[in-house]
Amino acid sequence: MKLPRNDSIAGKVLRLMLDGKARSKLDITDALGLHPAKEITARLRDYRKDEPEGYCLDVRHWTEKRAGETVHVYQVHNAPQWMLDQLADERRKEQGMGVAA
After folding, report:
1. For residue 58, is it within any domain?
2. Residue 98 above 70 pLDDT?
3. 99 in a domain, yes or no?
4. Is the residue at 59 inside a domain?
5. How many structural domains does the chain have?
6. Which segment of 2-6, 8-12, 33-37, 69-73 scores lowest on mean pLDDT?
7. Cis peptide before 4, with omega less than 30 degrees from 0?
8. Per the domain annotation, does 3 fall within a domain?
């Protein structure tokens, strides 16, 4: 299985979230310059689906109060090693360092 393309919304959202940090929809849209937020949450839901439609990821979701507003927060928990390896390989390629065999 492969990660979604870098230039797709699914690919951008997944690559951002694989660091395991908790982010609100606004945090994600601001970081990636993507809108609307519904597209972001749709991709996060897709990641939870079983293969082949999704990646069967543990995407956690909860609400928090921030400045008196209810905010939805998402976090990818325990991403599979193959995803992290592919992401690391991509980053090495981008930096011109080559890929480990």
Report:
1. yes
2. no
3. no
4. yes
5. 1
6. 33-37
7. no
8. no
